[in-house]
Amino acid sequence: MICNNSDIQNKIIDGRLIARNIESSISEKVIKLKQSGIVPAIAVILVGEDPASVVYVRNKERAAQRCGILSKKDIYPESLTEKELINKIEELNNDPLIHGILVQLPLPSHIGEKKITEAINPSKDVDGFHPLNVGKIFTENAPFYPCTPYGILKMLDYYDIPVKGKNCVIIGQSNIVGKPLAVMLMNRLAAVSSLNIFTKDVKSIASKADVLISATGKAHLIDDGYVKDGAVVIDVGIANIGGKICGDVNFDKVINKVSKITPVPGGVGPLTVAVLMENTVKSAMGRLQK
Amino acid sequence: MICNNSDIQNKIIDGRLIARNIESSISEKVIKLKQSGIVPAIAVILVGEDPASVVYVRNKERAAQRCGILSKKDIYPESLTEKELINKIEELNNDPLIHGILVQLPLPSHIGEKKITEAINPSKDVDGFHPLNVGKIFTENAPFYPCTPYGILKMLDYYDIPVKGKNCVIIGQSNIVGKPLAVMLMNRLAAVSSLNIFTKDVKSIASKADVLISATGKAHLIDDGYVKDGAVVIDVGIANIGGKICGDVNFDKVINKVSKITPVPGGVGPLTVAVLMENTVKSAMGRLQK
């Protein structure tokens, strides 16, 4: 049976809508903070001119503007040394007017990502990548959770999709999406399977998932053979095919099987940015309490 | 076909043997450290008189003795307050003659485990439970990895059992075994499924595992229905049935199917203790480099 248009609409997880809701609640908090004399501010550091990074940074700046958050962008040439970058981060760590620090990844290869991530003060680590904050994911007391996995949980919550006892399958084991999301779903008592490019029977494992999350960046990897009837499908992938943005999931091939699905664009992406703003305001509110 | 006795012996992962090997390499390092005037020392704190904890602490003391590591045991009454315990930990943090600090868990309910774990200086956190060290599991630069999961990896290495591309299933999602082990197996590019008591089809998922790790504490949960032919089975469980120590796995029922299996006792337990000693010596060697 082919779904009709309104069936399809009901299946689509509207990432932009959820993000707008989050941003509207953030904006109210920002107004209150400003009344107390605190202007929430995020510093975004971009090293080099990676085109995708330029777009991501622009999206983050625009979201900050919408929320009333001050966004301070520092762009450095590709030739910036690791030591120079660490010095810049130290300045921001010590700047009481900055509440969140984001270094856009990837960095040029002469700069060590681990060192940079660990240089950011954990209390300003709004990306949630500092190991101290990553470790606190296990004990569920992180001040900031990494934006993409946390955005995915917010989507599930928005549509009342419980994961306790459910079978969740994550394709992709990156440090910023796949691994932390796996732990965050374990915290919610899901059965979690984490797969990678060396896994032999991805299709067979994926096709048993109640919730399937794909974060590989391989365009249209996931077709109907990977999807169980009634599954929720979350597409974290982003690729550019002939100037058209698409995700890991072949939307048209799976739409008849899924109960819910995120589109690309307009799915996970806006949530990632909204959570970043939420983390920044959370950090600024911590300042209020001091 | 019933295995004969020598078949069975060849299948058994001899945790005590591997632990002895590790301890013998530790002992050599301890001798060198002592020649440089450093006596590696671990402080073990026990609050209350939980019988299992008393046994665990005794095992750790004996291992320290075998390796030539100084073990300083502090036993406090159940009535010790959280603040008092934190003060004791602070003293040990500041004591240059102490290289490792271990607070035996579980703690009495009036003491917050998270707070205590975070009070230990990460550079002396030989249990590998401090969130900073847990977070560094993701980026594979932790100074100390949690002892039980790391001991399991050492077992796999000892018998040349690769996990890259293999299907690893972990039953149990605790913060000290199941969750960190899941991430450590992802680091090795395994497909990892993490299950819990709310998972509906544990048996069906487990029976597809190349490596099955059970860490539930439910005696004899795992019978032949849970095990694929040729699987490696690691039993982290420990229970006491009628005065007899047994694990999660019904050894007699699965022995014909497995290619390798850990016994209980004599499997994972000795490795956990040996890794703790290794972590302590690693910490002391760091002192040497300063």
Describe this structure in words.
Two copies of one chain form a homodimer. Chain A is of the alpha/beta class and 290 residues long. The first copy, chain A, has two domains: 39-140, Leucine Dehydrogenase, chain A, domain 1 (Rossmann fold), CATH 3.40.50.10860; 147-269, Rossmann fold, CATH 3.40.50. Chain A is 43% helix and 15% strand. Chain A has helices spanning 5-11, 15-35, 51-67, 82-94, 113-119, 131-138, 147-158, 178-187, 202-206, 251-254, 268-289; strands at 41-47, 70-76, 100-103, 167-171, 191-195, 211-214, 232-235, 239-241, 244-246, 260-261. In chain A, strands 5-4-6-7-10 form a five-stranded parallel β-sheet. A three-stranded parallel β-sheet of chain A has the order 2-1-3, sandwiched between helices. In chain A, helix 2 (15-35) runs parallel beside helix 11. The longest helix of chain A has 22 residues, at 268-289. The termini of chain A are far apart. The interface between A and B is large, with 36 and 36 residues.
